[in-house]
Amino acid sequence: MTNDLLQLENLSEALLQRYNTSGPRYTSYPTAPMWTDTFGPKQFEAALSLPSTAPLSLYTHLPFCEHRCLFCACNVTITSQKEQAEKYLGYLFDDIDRFADLMDVAHTNRVVKQYHWGGGTPTFLTCDQMERLFRHHQSRFTFAPNAEIAIEVDPRVTTDEQLVCLRNLGFNRVSLGVQDIQPETQVAIERIQPLEQTEAMVNRCRELGFGGINFDLIYGLPHQTMASFDATLTEMIRLSPDRIALYNFAYVPWMAPHQQKIDEATLPVGSEKFTIFKNAIRRLLEAGYLYIGMDHFAKPTDELAIAWQQGTLHRNFMGYTTHAGCELLGFGVSAISTLTGHYAQNHRKLVDYYASVESGELPVHRGLALSEDDITRRGIIHQLLCDSRLKSGELRQQGGYDEALDSLGPLVADGLLLKEGEGVVETLTLTILGRILSRNTAMPFDTYLDSPIATTVEHLPKHEQRLRPVGADGKPVAVYSKTL
Ligand code: SF4
């Protein structure tokens, strides 16, 4: 039995409930609700023109889906009109060109180390459209020979021709939404995806030579029980993906009205949900996956697990990545960019995105210039969430964080953190309990949690960055998640 499995035994429902407060997932710090629309295209242009040699990570958002899955709270456009994709691509090419012109990347040799298409359903595009989009990026940016080139694929709609096309273009990692394989649950979430369909796609991806396969699973869905989700896990482990993300279902019908079609009475709650969650972690650990933290598991041979063990893991709007040190450029509607000292998010509505691109500006709707204090605190939160370790002695000596450090005392007592060393060499290491509840270890360092904008805290949709919740007064509200 590994240490993690042994320590998992100490995870009681009472302990989890004690720490089950709403909190950010820290895909950024300060978190997205703290960004402001006083940071717009001009400010982001200025930020982009600052000298930098950091390698690049490029994210492209492709927002179209033919049908809305009821659990999903992503920023998507539901349509069966395929011509919409062609129109979108036209704007996207202008968006890419504007970025590339501003950064003058051709002359600064900033290579692309990571490239990702997310959505929506990226394979809403035809093979010809996918090839033109990829070639357009390639024509404006220099890709590293070993770049990670990834895409989210939906096994229900992705054709063999598309998979071959993607592989020929150089895509080497695929992420499959699976959620749960049980028919009753699939009917309730309006996403019918038989196991055979998922398995056929996994096999074909392997045959074509995709080097990495990720699955997204969700706990807390309608009709899930410990036994039913255990059966799902058995099949998932058999299919042996390299990485598994295990998300808590965000039931937010007041913000995502399509979720009103889900019968709340069918959702697992309380002890049942706790058992589903704990059993899932145990099953994945027993199967040999490492628990990186905050929903993510990886095989020990996977780059993510290796980066975690080597202390080179990074966290951004795509979750955990292996590309520390990259600056992230986001293309398309609602996409987010992260520079060393700035965040920027594009317009969330297609109509606004199109109008902004047409005006010749960067389609930035809001963002933030980070203060020195923000950058320092982001570094601390990064240590906790990515390195699973905080050099607490050094931080105390640095000064200014005594209150936050002192508030970690109960987390040490409860076994979330392991304290080692004394004085300046003191470190706090996150145990598996701490990695499950890692947002609780980070929250004491977040100075924005008491801000008025963050007072409305509820469950968080899967991708915080893609949803821009707005309160009754039209102002943004912070929507943070719970572990359970
Ligand atoms: S889960 Fe995927 S396919 Fe379903 S609506 Fe959301 S983005 Fe579209």
**What is the name of the CATH superfamily of the largest domain?**
tm_1862 like domain
**How many DSSP-defined strands?**
19
Share of β-strand residues: 15-25%
- Show unreliable segments: 453-477
Number of helices: 19
Question: Measured on Cα atoms, how large is the radius of gyration?
Answer: 22 Å
Q: Based on Cα principal axes, name the global outline.
A: globular
**Strand count, sense and closure of the main sheet?**
9 strands, mixed
What are the salient characteristics of this protein?
alpha/beta; three-stranded antiparallel sheet; pyruvate-formate lyase- activating enzyme; binds iron/sulfur cluster; 484 residues
Please give a structural write-up.
The chain has helices spanning 3-8, 13-18, 41-48, 83-103, 105-108, 127-140, 160-169, 183-188, 195-208, 226-239, 270-286, 303-310, 350-358, 372-387, 392-398, 402-406, 409-413, 432-436, 438-442, and strands at residues 56-62, 64-65, 77-78, 111-119, 142-153, 173-179, 212-219, 243-248, 290-293, 296-298, 314-316, 319-321, 327-331, 336-338, 342-346, 364-369, 389-390, 417-420, 427-430. Residues 453-477 have low confidence and may be disordered. It has 484 residues and is α/β, with parallel strands linked by helices. The chain has two domains: 1-19 and 372-451, Arc Repressor Mutant, subunit A; 31-331, pyruvate-formate lyase- activating enzyme, CATH 3.80.30. It has a nine-stranded mixed sheet with strand order 9-10-8-7-6-5-4-1-13, with helices on both faces. Strands 14-15-16 form a three-stranded antiparallel sheet, with helices on one face. A three-stranded antiparallel sheet has the order 17-19-18. The protein contains 19 helices and 19 strands. The radius of gyration is 22 Å and the shape is globular. The structure holds iron/sulfur cluster.
